[in-house]
């Protein structure tokens, strides 16, 4: 069954809201078990949800948390039972007393699973060039 724009938008909003709240369960619940992750801040692709979650739990154990996360300039491209969601992300995160502000571009691929859920199967995060930061602001 093909995905709809509303389904993808709702799935993306849930994922971003869970990230913004540093809600580990809800955030990782938005990804398929075999999801992959490419982050410019990591030396290699993360090959599964559990690999990323292990990294995330290491960060949060040190007190790391999201202070704010704003998504702008969203675009949804439907492709049958899958879709590509792209947006600009402005995040403030870090440990107490050591916050960092980032502006990035993100691509998330969503699919409809056999049980009908809409989950992310791939996430790619890259730094936003200065020109894109000016547009998103």
From TrEMBL:
InterPro entries: NTF2-like_dom_sf, SnoaL-like, Steroid_delta5-4_isomerase. Residues 8-128 form the SnoaL-like domain. This is SgcJ/EcaC family oxidoreductase. The lineage of its organism: Bacteria, Bacillati, Actinomycetota, Actinomycetes, Micrococcales.
């Amino acid at each position: 069954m093909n995905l709809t724009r509303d389904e993808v938008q709702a799935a993306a909003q849930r994922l971003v809201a869970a990230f913004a709240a540093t809600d580990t369960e809800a955030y990782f619940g938005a990804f398929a078990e075999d999801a992959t992750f490419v982050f410019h801040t990591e030396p290699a692709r993360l090959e599964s949800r559990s690999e990323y979650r292990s990294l995330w739990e290491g960060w949060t154990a040190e007190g790391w948390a999201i202070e704010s996360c704003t998504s702008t300039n969203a675009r949804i491209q439907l492709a049958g039972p899958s879709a590509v969601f792209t947006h600009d992300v402005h995040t403030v995160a870090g440990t107490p007393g050591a916050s960092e502000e980032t502006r990035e571009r993100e691509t998330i691929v969503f699919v409809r699973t056999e049980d009908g859920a809409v989950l992310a199967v791939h996430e790619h995060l890259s730094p936003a060039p200065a020109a894109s930061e000016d547009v998103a602001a």
